[in-house]
Write a structure and sequence with these properties.
Keywords: DNA-binding, Transcription, Transcription regulation. It contains 9 helices and 2 strands; from the N terminus they run αααααααβααβ. It is mainly α. The protein has a two-stranded antiparallel ribbon.
C-alpha cells in the first residue's frame, strides 16, 4: 500500500472501532490491531491519536460531501428563479439525508467526536481543533451546495453564504440528533422542506 492508502485503511479501522466503543475508548494500539499492522505503522502515518481523530472527522465529512455529488442529474436543467432554487436546494439536502439515513452509527460518531474534542479540550486545548476542523469542513460542504444551486438557477443569495451555510448546518445537526432519538424520517423530510423554503426566501432572481 502507498502511504495514502495505508492512512485511509487506518482511518476506516478507527471509524469501525469508534462506532462500537466510542471515540474516547479507541487507542492507537486498538487501531493497529484492527487494521492488522504494527503500532509503529500507525505512528508513522499519524503523529498521535489526535491526528488520527482529526482525519477521521474529515473522512466522515467527506462522505457527506460525496453523497451530494453522487447524482449529477439533480443539477442538470434545474430551471431558473427562486422556485427552481428551492427545489434544487431541497434535492441537494435529500441526497445528503439519504446518506445520513443509511449510516446512523456514523452519524452518532460525528456527535461523539465533537463532545470528545470539547470535553478533552478542557485539559488539552489542541483537541478543540478536532471539532473546529469538523465544523469548518461541513460549513464549506453546505456552502458549496448553496453556491452550486445559485449558479444552476441564475439566482443570487441576499444573505451572506457563510451565514446561510452555518444556519443550514445548525438545523441539520438538530434534525439528525432528534432522528437518532426517535427515528422519524418523515418528520426530518418535513423539516428539510421548511428549511429549503426558508433558504429560498433569502434569494432573488
Amino acid at each position: 500500500m502507498s502511504v495514502e492508502e495505508r492512512r485511509a485503511h487506518l482511518i476506516e479501522a478507527a471509524i469501525g472501532l469508534a462506532e462500537k466503543k466510542g471515540v474516547a475508548g479507541v487507542t492507537t494500539r486498538d487501531v493497529a490491531q484492527a487494521a492488522g499492522v504494527s503500532l509503529g505503522v500507525v505512528h508513522y502515518c499519524f503523529e498521535n491519536k489526535d491526528a488520527l481523530m482529526t482525519e477521521l472527522v474529515k473522512a466522515l465529512s467527506m462522505e457527506l460531501r460525496d453523497s451530494v455529488d453522487a447524482d449529477e442529474t439533480v443539477w442538470q436543467d434545474a430551471g431558473s428563479g427562486k422556485e427552481a432554487l428551492q427545489r434544487l436546494v431541497r434535492a441537494g439536502l435529500e441526497l445528503m439525508w439519504l446518506n445520513i439515513e443509511a449510516t446512523p452509527e456514523r452519524q452518532l460518531l460525528t456527535y461523539e467526536t465533537t463532545t470528545y474534542a470539547l470535553r478533552e479540550g478542557e485539559q488539552t486545548p489542541a483537541r478543540i481543533a478536532i471539532a473546529r476542523e469538523q465544523y469548518t469542513f461541513n460549513d464549506s460542504t453546505v456552502a458549496d451546495i448553496l453556491d452550486h444551486a445559485r449558479e444552476a438557477t441564475s439566482t443570487q443569495w441576499t444573505a451572506p453564504v457563510p451565514t446561510l451555510s452555518r444556519f443550514t448546518l445548525n438545523v441539520i445537526d438538530g434534525a439528525v440528533l432528534r432522528w437518532l432519538v426517535d427515528n422519524d424520517s418523515e418528520a426530518v423530510r418535513e423539516q428539510l422542506d421548511l428549511l429549503s423554503g426558508m433558504l429560498a426566501s433569502y434569494s432573488t432572481a
